[in-house]
Fold these 2 entries.
Entry 1:
Amino acid sequence: MKTTQQGRRGFLKSASIGALTLTSILNGCRNKNTSTPTSKGTSLDSPKGKMTYRTDPHTGEKVSLLGFDMMKLPTQNNDSPSDSNAPIDQERVNQLVDYALDHGVNLYATSPAYCNGQSETATGNALSRHPRNSYLLSTQLSNFNPATWSRKASQEMFRKSLKCLQTEYVDYLFLHEVGMGDDPLKVFNKRYIENGILDWLVEQRKKGIIKHLGFSFHGDISLFDLLLQWHDEGKYHFDCVLIELNYLEWDYANEINPRNTDARYLYGELEKRQIPAFVMEPLLGGCLASLPQSVAMELKRKDSQKSITSWAFRYAGTRSGILSVLSDLTYMEQLKDALLSYCPLVPLSESEMRFLHKDIAEEMVGFEAIPCIDCKYCMPCPYGLDIPAIFTHYNKMKNEGRIPVFSQDKDYARYRREFLIGYNRSVPSLRQADHCIGCGECVGHCPQRIAIPQEMKKIDRFVEKLKQGMS
């Protein structure tokens, strides 16, 4: 029987505050100076030649179960890795790609929207040093801006992708963020139907310039269902679909955000049609790598030899209909940790799946963090805010049970000081929440449908109270 929302919140709050401090298992992958923990006595380096592969049912091609998502690449601004304006550190990207290829990762996924427009070029520079038949390339048609909705502009975007990636073809092309906007069907029609771009992309598939055509989904389920109806009717054939899937969003995506759809439904509909699923956000923007203390302790009690992230990685890859799990691998320790889960994959047992669904996900769903996945689609802010960094700091303090709430609490003064000092270190003063004017430019780009201006106002008010010493 499920506990109530209030009961889960109360349990998590008391357990988080009262629990003993965990060490590196709670640090997650957000800090580049934090090594990802491994099982006791286990080397972080995974063995070569052990990668688990899935077979693409359309081509028989082997696809690495771990895919390298090039959405968050290392920058030259080491002190602020979340700075989307900083130039990409190409040498470090090359090192990551070389290591990944050497350990069997053959799928690399990018988009014109990633890394403030720098990802495709960095990806092309890194991969072009290797034979083209040694890797698979995925990119997206990211024509979010109405200025790119014309046939010519969308075609130019795709051709630019090929140029930046230094390739004559892409293995997987996704229509980016289907389901977004206040009127998703209207937006979809403007982006892909009225301009004839979807038909044009189908022609590119026939020519072999695109090997597989699919869409990535966020948001309005009616559009997801419509596209699958078109697939069933033969109007458009989709070779693959990219969905969010992790053990929290399997049953609780809608509770985290009312406009999202549970992964159980999305995956089930694709499985019925034998459409291969690609997975994004296996760690839910790092949230499943940096868990509330009480939840992390439950995972360690279940199996002290497994890392916190390995539970999420193995969960994302266990179902047979999943072709590849795309993970952000900004730092070498993140890459090595992910490889340990897929070289080879040890699928979760039925009892382990039940444990994650019932004992872990049910506890976490009532925890009132902001559902930001740090994708940076909201950036750049026209007024200079570092929106992801603001949310990341708030969520970190929330997840660790160190939000200063009541001035009479014995730890209030310490938590207040930690929050303010950490906030100023994480986010430069000119990029903090108090500079939000509520323009709403960011809202339409957020795949999680976060009411960003409202959240900024709440955080700003909270920070001001802390500065004044108010409860």
Entry 2:
Amino acid sequence: MPYRVGPKGQVVVAKEIRDRLGIGPGWVAIQRLNGDHVEMHFLPPDHNESLKGSLAPYVRRDASPEDWDRARDRAWRDAATARERETDPPS
């Protein structure tokens, strides 16, 4: 469905797209000119949630600093993979 550009240059992001990407109020829209069209990427707002215990599944209590580094890297990799699966179009 086409949308018109408003008098202030604003355009509505279709509800289906917002729902699919999980975009909500406060998200940041990054715009990039790519040839003859614009690409938009959306970043969620900062959160105030505690991260306490978020690495617990990845490391033992008596872990060395190197273990914590590996645990952090694995947790980031797992989170990125999960995020990728959420945003990949169905095949």
